[in-house]
Amino acid sequence: MATPVRVGTVQPVVPFLVSSTGSQMQVRKRNGSLEPADVNKIVRAVERSCDGLKSVDPIRIASKTIGGLFNGATTKELDLLSIQTAASLIAEEPEYSKLAARLLDGFITKEVANQDIHSFSQSIATGKQHGLVRYLLRNPETREALETPQQFFLRVACGLSRTVQEAIEFYRVISAHDYMPSSPTLFNSGTRHAQMSSCYLLDSPADNLEAIYEKYKDVALLSKFAGGIGLAYHRVRSRGSLIRATNGHSKGIVPWLKTLDSSVAAVNQGGKRKGACCVYLESWHADVAEFLELRENTGDNAQRAYNLNLANWIPDLFMKRAEADEVWSLFDPKVVPHLPDLVGEAFESAYVKAEQEGLFTRQVKARELYARMMKVLAETGNGWMTFKDACNLKSNQTARPANVVHLSNLCTEITEVSSRQETAVCNLGSINLGKHVSEGQFDFEKLARTVRTAVKFLDRVIDINFYPITPAGDSNRKWRPVGLGVMGLQDVFFALRLPFDDSEARQLSKRIQEEIYFHALDTSCALAEEFGAHPAFAETRAAEGILQMDLWGVQPEDASRWEELRNRIRTVGLRNSLLIAIAPTATIASIVGAFECIEPQVSNLFKRETLSGDLGHSRDSRGNPGHLPDRVGNPHALPN
């Protein structure tokens, strides 16, 4: 009977193994040389990564690795086996994810050092030599990493900085996981094509062949450099509409969206993650029924577009008609081309007039169409409900009637003005709230410091960004929008032992958001004093002294400080037209080991599918994330 192994205890093992032929087993090192397979060396390698992990069994990992030994096996293969073994045990004990992450960190460090890269400067030089600098820098041929995670953070910081002091300031914030820029910034900061913006919002193509394909070209170029796409489709004619140039009839928007679907699948954000596009359609469009079917799991595949996300762009009038169980009219955009550019009362008047003139294609019960939207949303998770009038009436950018929001973005966290001449852009990053809890209290002073640093570097993205298409650069420099979000709200509540729906938790969340908005405005105002307000400031509500809480009728705490800030903004302006956006943070929350954005804990174990493979994630019994490495050593120390 085998002797039981106690967790964390190393049992005596035979140091060297022999092959089936009786010869001593050899392993091949990363430099190509052979050495005897030393079992104790494997055990020690695993044990070094187990510091502080009381619930993991290093012998269990080492034994599985030893079991995979064969004569001529590479140390790289053995390291990967150890990592995979630890990852496979995450569902059993969350601490194994930290072990797997530490082993992976060691694997990357060895891979980098084996290429004679021992410092940050050598990493950058090697990346430049290969004509790239990317997260994580990888050799274009061998796909081996050319930088360690800490060198990666320093590269991101340097790519956004003008001075050494700025680089150190930003490095310390992101390496400590207090704040994290969005994925495109992490992918591309410091690269030859530094496209660091997260989202692009494109107005609908005009209703002609040339305009549609030109818009698809724009989508492909933006997606190539890791931009998430929002695309309105309100202006393209519906099925059955007469095409005078050929005397034929249109097949509607579905064939065009099938073409876009294939393009999105083909251009997968530089191979780093899947291409992503959300198409928005106004609820009066005559093809709305076919649009809602695009993501259904049954039916004709020729009428499906599984690579696209879908969203309804809903005017308030539709909701009024649904509530009253009244008729809703569907129109061909060719007949009512002015409707996409009208909001509120102007839209309602024009819509009712078109109805009275009998211009509609057909009529349906508004409540039945609404029920159909809800059914599609429940069954497919698509067909998101976004509200045209609310988005326009609450936006800082729409003080003038000519400035219209036509859609939201891929993840619906931002709304911006767009047109044929302007492709709206947003630059995102999120504060890790869980890192702002100290000694049983939320640290609002640290939050203020983090906000100031984050807004400064989000604004910096606009100036040094690479813009794949001209309308995006023109819009971004005109409006200078940034989206500062949060993640880890659930981590805060766990640390303070507050139920998610507790009144104290709600009050804390409210104060956190108010402080973020205040300090973001304050920082943007300071940047305006130094560099000037954004060119379109006069076109915004803020120029009239109207801030976001005024649009919602909310009275902030400490009204005097807000009034002082309001007067300062009227005088010097703001550097940025938009400042706050609660983004989903799926990727960067995984990087910092936090719960996503403002979401509650929904599961102790789940899986993420990425181009790099399927990744297991876990939360331990205390709600602590257990899927990424905890930081070992001093997070503020600069890498070599």
Core attributes:
eight-stranded mixed beta sheet; Anaerobic Ribonucleotide-triphosphate Reductase Large Chain; single chain; 640 residues; alpha/beta; 21 strands; 41% helix
Taking the sheet with the most strands, its summary is:
8 strands, mixed
The counted number of beta strands is 21
| Global outline | globular
Strand content: 5-15%
CATH hierarchy class name of the domain at 204-408? Alpha Beta
Write the layout of secondary structure elements.
Blueprint (H helix, E strand, L loop, with lengths): L25 E3 L5 E3 L2 H9 L10 H10 L5 E2 H14 L6 H19 L6 H10 L19 H11 L4 H12 L3 E3 L1 H6 L10 E4 L6 H16 L3 E5 L9 E2 L4 E2 L3 H14 L10 E6 L5 H5 L15 E7 L1 H8 L3 E4 L13 H13 L5 E4 H15 L3 E4 H6 L11 E4 L6 E3 L6 E9 L4 E2 L2 E2 L1 H21 L5 H10 L2 E6 L1 H7 L7 H29 L16 H5 L6 H14 L13 H7 L12 E6 L2 E6 L22
Parallel strand pairs: 1-3, 5-6, 6-9, 9-10, 10-13, 16-19
Antiparallel strand pairs: 1-2, 4-16, 5-16, 7-8, 11-12, 14-15, 17-18, 20-21
Helix pairs in contact: 1-2, 2-3, 3-4, 6-7, 9-10, 12-14, 16-19, 19-21
